[in-house]
Specification:
It is built from 20 helices and 23 strands. With 597 residues, the protein is an alpha/beta fold. The strands form four sheets. Strands 16-17-18-13-19-20-23-22 form an eight-stranded mixed sheet, with helices on both faces. Strands 6-7-8-3-9-10 form a six-stranded mixed sheet, sandwiched between helices. The chain starts with 7 loop residues before the first helix and ends in an 8-residue tail after the last strand. This is ABC transporter ATP-binding protein.
């Protein structure tokens, strides 16, 4: 990036001024105000964090500033948004197109709803650069490659040729961040920009935003439910509830002495790494047999090339993984994006081709089989996916979506079906009046709660939770985690809890497995992993966790150097298998790895 000198007087300059902003949405019962009289100023180089529960108006505020409201269902009902003195509310759509992406850019919460599925990553990045900068196609391609390298996406030249569906959730979010930063905007609005990212990549992205501010004086509005990120990044914090500001102040005093009861509740719900230190994790269920047994699981994806599109190499997503989970036990599975965590979950649901052995409650799963027996198998194992919007049919009401598993398996119909669905809605913190709505009418966190209710419908023995609370604000996250724990105690459920949030994993897990490049490099009890991590990679994950205390803010995030090794290997190429040594009842990789030195 070309660096400029930012003077102290320039940093005092107000770049964005929002006054009495009011946003209204149309409902069957009439117009509803979702942002009510919002006012704030944003200085050059300042980071303003907006916090609050799902549905509090955070994302609607961002969409209003960007003039991206889905009119006529939603509209700005009053107020002004001044960017360098120009009122964005008065601009027509043609003028706003020149502003978006150039002067003001936005990173969205769900990348698959923002990336064009039929265009390559490279083309989408090039178009963003060419639209706002007077550069040639070659210069735009160079800039696109530089940005993918800046967000530490492995094999950037190959990623430029891929389509969004070929990337993991974390990879797609990094592409969105690269696209937003490509034109060096004056204001960057980041709506949950690190929700889908593991802690090490999150640390690097946050450092990248810091570097951009330092070099160019970019102002940042950071919308997040992660109070650790708020403590690390914010100069000032706005707390919203029901469309209004309930507290506004510098980050230090707000964390130390929150004045509003709502803010106090939010901070009290924040999971803190080390909060479980010294506490043993006991399993109530004493059943001898394992609820889930996985042996030598391998997942590989073919890559084709050449004129005849023959298989030329394979992605070794999961390589010889083995573990078991007992009834009433939670195994936390952690690791960076692309390490194979989600591929394990999909293999357990028979959604991708796999080799090895999978048993649930003593019943074997056959790879690739889709029969009545496979349907019976799935009654015992259910999954909550990472992206709630992609896993809910937009044409169905959420009530029908939650009740669909009961209908498919012939477990309920008529009044009984409605009563069971209503009970599931109440258990995940949703009202029964919302059952008639469609997925697009809910916030991201509310959609994830719907997915959890759907997974609980069949009363399974095993639940795979793939980033199941990553889209939830901290207070709702705490409620959902309490619910999962309550259900586990009542029903002896076994959980495979896939997450990048180390504090949450520490809170919910009995045992933890750490993955790197498709293999498990360290496993152990919660206390062993979090209080005495042995593998350098595990220690690196711990060090990257943001601390929800502004007084302990780090001047510089410790981020890894160099590219992540590729999981792609040629046909017939020998792949080194991880060797394990016993360390008590823990296992870890026996060889040293220079990548973590």
């Amino acid at each position: 990036m070309q660096q400029t000198d930012v003077s102290a007087s320039q940093l005092e300059e107000i770049v964005l001024s929002v006054r009495d902003l009011k946003t209204e949405v149309a409902t069957p019962d009439g117009s509803k105000t979702v942002v009510d009289g919002l006012s704030f100023d944003l200085k050059r180089g300042e980071t303003l964090c907006i916090a609050g529960e799902s549905g509090s108006g955070k994302s609607m505020t961002a969409l209003s500033i960007m003039r991206l409201l889905p009119e006529p269902m939603a509209r700005i009902g009053g107020g002004s948004v001044l960017l360098d003195g120009r009122d964005l509310c008065q601009l027509d759509e043609t003028a706003m197109r020149s502003v978006r992406g150039g002067d003001i850019a936005m990173i969205f919460q769900e990348p698959m709803t923002s990336l064009n599925p039929v265009l390559t990553i490279g083309r989408q990045l090039r178009e963003a650069v060419i639209a706002h900068q007077s550069v040639s196609r070659r210069e735009a391609e160079k800039r696109a490659l530089e940005m993918l390298e800046a967000v530490r996406l492995s094999e950037p030249p190959r990623r430029l040729k891929q389509y969004p569906h070929e990337l993991s959730g974390g990879m797609r979010q990094r592409v969105m961040i690269a696209m937003a930063l490509a034109c060096n905007p004056k204001v960057l609005i980041a709506d949950e920009p690190t929700t889908a990212l593991d802690v090490t990549i999150q640390a690097q992205i946050l450092q990248l935003i810091r570097d951009l501010q330092r070099d160019f004086g970019t102002a940042v509005i950071l919308i997040t439910h992660d109070m650790g990120v708020v403590a690390e990044m914010a100069d000032r914090v706005i707390v919203m509830n029901q469309g209004q500001i309930v507290e506004d102040g510098p980050v230090g005093p707000l964390f130390q002495t929150p004045g509003d009861p709502y803010t106090q509740k939010l901070l009290a719900a924040v999971p803190k790494l080390g909060a479980m230190s010294g506490k043993d994790s006991e399993i109530r269920e004493k059943a001898a047999g394992a609820a889930l047994e996985v042996n030598d699981l391998t997942v590989r994806f073919d890559l084709r090339g050449g004129l005849l599109q023959r298989v030329v190499s394979r992605v070794h997503a999961v390589e010889g993984v083995s573990f078991d989970i007992r009834p009433g036990e939670t195994l936390g599975l952690v690791g960076e994006s692309g390490c194979g965590k989600s591929s394990i979950g999909k293999a357990l649901m028979n959604l991708v081709p796999w080799d090895g052995s999978i048993r649930v409650a003593g019943q074997h799963l056959m790879s690739g089989r889709n029969s009545a027996a496979d349907r019976a198998f799935r009654r015992n194992i259910q999954m909550v996916f990472q992206d709630p919007y992609a896993s809910l049919d937009p044409r169905m009401t959420v009530g029908d979506l939650v009740g669909e598993p009961l209908v498919i398996h012939g477990l309920a119909k008529g009044t009984e079906l409605q009563d069971r669905v209503a009970g599931l809605f109440r258990r995940v913190g949703l009202s029964t009046e919302q059952m008639s709505r469609h997925p697009h009418e809910f916030s991201g966190g509310q959609r994830q709660r719907i997915c959890i209710a759907r997974a609980l419908a069949l009363s399974p023995k095993v639940i795979i939770a793939d980033e199941s609370v990553s889209a939830l604000d901290v207070s709702v996250q705490a409620q959902v985690l309490d619910l999962l724990k309550e259900l586990q105690d009542e029903m002896g459920l076994a959980y495979l809890f896939i997450s990048h949030d180390m504090a949450v994993v520490e809170q919910v897990s009995h045992r933890v497995a750490v993955m790197y490049l498709g293999q498990i490099v360290e496993t152990g009890t919660r206390r062993q992993i979090f209080e005495n991590p042995c593998h350098p990679y595990t220690r690196r994950l711990m060090e990257a966790v943001p601390i929800p205390d502004p007084s302990r803010r780090r001047d510089m995030f410790q981020v890894p150097v160099g590219d992540v090794p590729s999981p792609i290997h040629g046909i017939g190429e020998t792949v080194e298998r991880v060797r394990y040594d016993d360390i008590g009842d823990r296992h870890m990789v026996a060889r040293s790895d220079e990548a973590f030195a």
